[in-house]
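Supplementary Text 2. Reproducibility record for the structural model of the 482-residue chain.

All settings were left at their defaults, and a single model was retained for analysis rather than an ensemble. We include the record here because the model underlies the residue-level annotations in Supplementary Table 4.
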Amino acid sequence: MSVPVAYQGNTSAAVADWLNKGDNAWQMTAATLVGLQSVPGLVILYGGIVKKKWAVNSAFMALYAFAAVWLCWVTWAYNMSFGDKLLPFWGKAKPALGHKFLLKQAEIPASTHYYRSGDVETAMATPYYPMATMVYFQCVFAAITLILIAGSLLGRMNIRAWMAFVPLWLTFSYTISAFSIWGGGFLFQWGVMDYSGGYVIHLSSGVAGFTAAYWVGPRSTKDRERFPPNNLLLMLVGAGLLWMGWAGFNGGDPYAANTDSSLAVLNTNICAATSLLVWTCLDVIFFKKPSVIGAVQGMITGLVCITPGAGLVQGWAAIAMGVLSGSLPWFTMMIVHKRSSLLQKVDDTLGVFHTHAVAGFLGGATTGLFAEPTLCSLFLPVTNSRGAFYGSPGGVQFLKQIVGALFVIGWNVVVTSIICLIIRIAIPLRMPEEELVVGDDAVHGEEAYALWGDGEAFEATKHGWSDDTQHGDGRINRSSAA
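Retained model, structure tokens:
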């Protein structure tokens, strides 16, 4: 069945002839699940996992990025990622009044991606739903990438510098990776496989976050030495939203509610669970206690690792990838990090380099090993792709995956550095020392909890509480009040 390039039915009708309502419903549901990973998922996770004085600022960095990406995305960044080719690695930013802008997008089917082999052009994906659905789905992916970068910068980046960083990095880094690998660019044409963002989202955010953290500088010495989470239970709520939201993250990438979508969701949960258990076991073996934060890190590395191959591998491979993602990032974070002068110098607040860059690279590489030929044919129909495990020419695919990763790494190191250097000409990248000492109250004039802070006596006159157990100097007798 051919898909019309414009609406062919009655323009007053509620449903177009070409619309597949089931696919459209699933795609919007998947997009919403991914959006919930960011808001409230990562907003809550960031707000709970940091020191109390940074809870508001950390949550706000995520909230701001989610909003800022939306406006940039519908105005120019979507077309740069999935539009017509400007360069082999970059799409055109069409004028705002072009035929693919905003509400006009609801009138036509989503754009078709093509793979060209010699003189033969074969459709990769022909979604039977409006362009607006595709814009929505891809926007929440772009937004979460910026929010993941924020995880490397919590507790010291100047909020005004962050406000400038988000649109610049989206425009000059994210759109490059997205077009090159997903939008028909040179890596897509060459056959590099990234099913749902192991490279475009996780490898790029991990490398960019680490690079930006280098230029911004570290947290205060006091914060680096002691940075206890202010609310572990709240952090677990955010982590739970992240895990469950990943069903949309990976399950929505076939662009249809089909068997491959179901496989991707199943593999996602298998790998995440395996990785969490492996990470926890390693914590028990080497540190004698199971860490809740460690379990969440293991969960995340599993989710990240399976992402580039979620719909391309079998269940046994998802378990193997979970074992690797629960152990190798654990090793780089717990062992290598403590022995590397470079990793020690760069203050990556939440270890995004390990949980996303290392795990994303690992996922892309293992996809090159375990990608099953039949599933590959559904993803890249004319490349004869297969993982090295399945024989010749699988070794070639593994090398393609490594080269694709190196391009994403190199581009992000260079472009993120340039963006940071340009921003700091006008705006200091790091907060002033007085803001670093006080935290949220100095930066936003707001605090996360109406409780006394580190080393602060509870004063009735300050906190609005008074009873007969009050000392003469205004401090409350806590044992009596309790």
